[in-house]
Design goal:
Layout lengths: L13 E2 L4 E9 L2 E8 L4 E5 L4 E15 L2 E6 L3 E4 L5 E16 L3 H4 L2
Antiparallel strand pairs: 1-2, 2-3, 3-8, 4-8, 5-6, 5-7, 5-8
Length: 111
């Protein structure tokens, strides 16, 4: 992609699980931004991947598990996930996460 401007209202949502949808924002070979919307009670299943990931809570409240440690996070909190560390979440109050990956998630672009 490598576009200098990406407008959120032009990005399409993709299903990402029951009560979860995402839209891919800006990305290039080394970095990707993804906005993920959760309905209350939705689950981000435990998983792992070879990417480093930051998640910033834009709205809502989540119970996150990262590497076996659980915490409740809310708007303004940030999570750091090392490559191949098991992580997932449960949405406690309807919310939105901004996920940043390095390198980019090729699997998110496969159709």
């Amino acid at each position: 992609m490598n576009k200098p401007f990406v407008f959120g209202d032009e990005c399409e949502f993709q299903p990402a699980g029951e009560g979860v949808r995402r839209k891919i924002l800006a990305y290039g070979e080394n970095l990707m931004a993804v906005e993920v919307h959760f309905e209350e009670g939705a689950i981000g299943a435990l998983h792992q991947h070879p990417h480093t990931q930051l998640s910033y809570v834009l709205e809502g409240e989540f119970e996150f598990e990262i590497g076996g440690e659980k915490n409740i996070v809310k708007k303004g909190d940030t999570l750091y996930k090392l490559p191949n560390v098991v992580h997932g979440c449960r949405c406690l109050k309807k919310g939105i996460l901004l996920d940043i990956f390095t390198p980019y998630r090729e699997d998110f672009l496969a159709k």
